């Protein structure tokens, strides 16, 4: 909203009368924050004046663009879901909350598949699966069938535990839920790659008190088979990374585990712990490592010019640097604007890691094919 109580109250009238939503989520803007609009007070007035129909909800998050980044705003809104909707309960249900972080709908779908495979009842929030990657049916639906439900969000306060994926994007909601509803939480890295997925699966097993089925163990073995078979192509490759902090921490850990070396790492999101975590992950690197939080593409490009890499991984904006420096490029993270598939194929979990390795291998081996002379060009590489 651009500021002003009257505007927001009129917006409530319009939205409820035209679209009839169950929930309206209000995100502030820079102007509204600068003016100092008291959004909770406006919501209370709307309720008192009957502008919020019975059974309907309005929640809000402070999202000024001059603080943090898009990840900060995302984390604030996920926290708002807990603040407004989660209800404390003395009776704990046999279910686990999973806060997936700033990931693709395909990743959310994969996390739900893994918990289902383990026989665990879970509430995933937020959940954009079957909403932002829903099928084309030929029929228009104002509200797709997928996504999270309000009643489930209310029940998150009666879960026996919460697993939050990504410190920055998911941590605030998890700790708020613990404080408000006494639901203990564990904050993990995003389950990207072998080790991080192992930790996620083992945490699910421990918290829910279940066994890991053979089907998931087989997926792990398939991922390990790809890593061992293709290790010669990964070994020693230098990589430049751009993206959101939670994703870069998990991705850098995965690359180091397969003997690839991230040497230029930039995120646009400010934060106190990001650079320290990356330094810890890359402490054994045989090359000097450049890392910057609240950095930009210009800085990243200069680093790549000064010390070329074998592979770039990042969002669509990195394509300009990849073209300028003639460097193989894998699209990963947000936003991906010029390719399809990312909303349907996950990069979390063992299957997601296999998909990510396929993309990395394709980029590396396509370059090897392209650069091979006639005598070096091989059928089997």
Question: In summary, what is this structure?
Answer:
With 381 residues, this protein is α/β, with parallel strands linked by helices.
Write a structural description:
This protein has 381 residues and is of the alpha/beta class. Helices cover 46% and strands 14% of the residues. The protein is built from 15 helices and eleven strands. It has helices spanning 5-18, 30-35, 39-48, 70-85, 105-117, 150-155, 167-181, 194-208, 214-229, 231-234, 245-257, 274-281, 297-306, 319-325, 349-371; strands spanning 23-27, 57-61, 93-99, 122-124, 159-165, 185-188, 238-242, 261-266, 290-292, 311-314, 329-331. Strand 3, helix 5 (105-117) and strand 4 form a beta-alpha-beta unit. Helix 4 runs parallel beside helix 7 (167-181). The longest helix has 23 residues, at 349-371. 39% of the residues are buried. The mean pLDDT is 95.
